[in-house]
Amino acid sequence: MDRAQKEKVVEELGQIFESSGVVVVAHYEGLTVAEMQDLRAMMRDAGGAVRVAKNRLARIALEGKPCQGISDLLSGMTVLAYSEDPVAAAKVSEDFAKKNKKFEILGGAMAETVLDRDGVKSVAAMPSREELIAQIASCIGAPASNVAGAIGAPASNIAGILSTIEDKAA
User: Fold this and answer.
1) What is the pTM of this model?
2) What is the rounded (10 degree) CA torsion for 100, 104, 110, 114?
3) What is the mean pLDDT of the chain?
4) Residue ranges covered by each domain of the chain
5) What is the 3-state secondary structure (H, E, C) of 41-61?
6) What three-state secondary structure class fits 170?
């Protein structure tokens, strides 16, 4: 890899560190190509990506970035999982680590907050952006459905009473 290619990689990594909602750092030693492809596919489906980069270049890219504290995690065979959604990459990494013991999560970063192993686990337990939007929408829609039910209830009650009176009269 010549100097121009290295500079390009450092620039790409710098963009990843700046624009990602979460970055997860993990060891992947011993994973097969097929397992790595499965991880990439899972991450892509969740709206994230996986990147293997030289630790030295990643450390250079981290200089001056808010998540610079994760440079200590970059040793050995490391892989970066990242996503704009602050939860997606952590969820997929956790799910993959449960299925595959060779994938060991070291930690990560969420904006300028450096996460240890337990921190990544906590982020993975949080609802995703889409889940939060759905919860908010249901909270907003619930009162409207309650009002519609209350308005429709007296008419159904009257119909029930009339039906009962009709049955008694017959």
Assistant:
1) 0.72
2) 160
3) 84
4) 3-126, 127-170
5) HHHHHCCEEEEECCHHHHHHH
6) coil
